[in-house]
């Protein structure tokens, strides 16, 4: 590991721990009440959903508009598993139950992503988007009519296992995993398909296999996001996972920048917190929210960060450099 990477890891680790300590102090001192904690938890879940969608929409460059359907599969499968596990009476710590439920939700959703992705990824662009919308609606209608999961009334009796402490660290772990995946051999192969599929295939990259891999990994993390959502709300209903929710997630990815994971994080924070900040202006909330998106798309169509990533280390170094330049200029003027 070279010196620059070591420095980046140390700075990022300190920043992550410091941010957690700030939230911890705010919660302990009652500055953050349950309402604000709820916003923070939903922001973490939306970060996971946006980053997982960015694997397909950003890394692979395909239009996937059915992400809410995969979230629904993760939410229902994990909730059904945790209810069954709790009913056995076997004494397990809540965090273990949550981790097992997340894994079940992720694996089940990943399998569904593989089964759906294998035939549909032969399509491209708008056609793929239409097919993913169709599958998402099929999943939603299935849960509306599936009585074992409560049907249209929703699934009740889910134990609330998610709090800010565990969702924060779970989100950090998933961010690290997705960043690592993007920089791995498989992730770079997926990005090369986005850049030029014909050239990638000519170079010996099995494009179909890597497309399905991207879709499966994206679905897996969407399932984990769904599991966290189910165990935070302690109630799941099919109406939540409609077409517009998929569009919301896609807007976050586009606003942050297709292919930029840090962009997805920033956009998820902005688009989750902004509607809540505007709640006091109920009559104009959606108008201001929509106007902000339109202005952003006009003046910055590539998104906040485009395809680049925000580096905290480089940002700090640039601040130090500016300070040094300013000091040297000031010193020259005094002489």
Automatic annotation (TrEMBL):
Regions that span the bilayer: 9-29, 35-57, 64-83, 95-115, 127-146, 166-184, 212-230, 250-274, 286-305
Compartment annotation: Cell membrane
Membrane topology value: Multi-pass membrane protein
Stated name of the protein: Branched-chain amino acid ABC transporter permease
Keyword Signal: no
Listed InterPro entries: ABC_transp_permease (IPR001851), LivM-like (IPR043428)
Main localization category: membrane
Transmembrane keyword on record: yes
Keywords on record: Cell membrane, Membrane, Transmembrane, Transmembrane helix
């Amino acid at each position: 590991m070279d010196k620059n990477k070591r420095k980046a890891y140390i700075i990022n680790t300190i920043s992550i721990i410091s941010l957690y300590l700030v939230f911890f102090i705010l919660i302990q001192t009652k500055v953050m009440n349950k309402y604000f904690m709820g916003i923070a938890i939903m922001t973490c879940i939306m970060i996971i959903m946006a980053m997982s969608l960015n694997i397909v929409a950003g890394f692979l460059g395909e239009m996937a508009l059915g992400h809410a359907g995969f979230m629904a599969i993760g939410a229902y499968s994990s909730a059904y598993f945790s209810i069954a596990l709790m009913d056995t009476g076997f004494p397990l710590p809540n965090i273990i139950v949550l981790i097992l439920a997340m894994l079940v939700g992720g694996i089940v959703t990943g399998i569904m992503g593989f089964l759906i992705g294998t035939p549909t990824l032969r399509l491209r662009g708008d056609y793929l988007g239409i097919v993913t919308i169709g599958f998402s609606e099929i999943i939603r209608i299935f849960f509306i009519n599936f009585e074992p999961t409560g049907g249209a009334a929703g699934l009740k009796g889910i134990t609330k296992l998610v709090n800010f402490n565990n969702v924060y660290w779970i989100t950090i772990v998933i961010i690290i995993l997705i960043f690592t995946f993007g920089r791995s051999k498989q992730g770079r192969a997926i990005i090369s398909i986005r850049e030029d599929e014909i050239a990638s295939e000519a170079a010996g990259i099995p494009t179909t296999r890597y497309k399905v891999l991207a879709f499966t990994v994206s679905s897996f993390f969407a399932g984990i996001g769904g599991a966290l959502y189910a165990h935070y709300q302690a109630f799941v209903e099919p109406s939540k996972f409609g077409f517009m929710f998929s569009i919301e997630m896609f807007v976050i990815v586009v606003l942050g920048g297709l292919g930029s994971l840090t962009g997805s994080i920033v956009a998820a924070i902005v688009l989750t917190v902004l509607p809540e900040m505007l709640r006091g202006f109920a009559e104009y909330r959606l108008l201001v929210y929509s106007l902000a998106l339109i202005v952003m798309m006009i003046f910055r169509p590539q998104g906040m960060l485009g395809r680049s990533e925000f580096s905290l280390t480089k940002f700090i170094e640039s601040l130090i450099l500016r300070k040094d330049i300013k000091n040297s200029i000031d010193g020259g003027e005094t002489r």
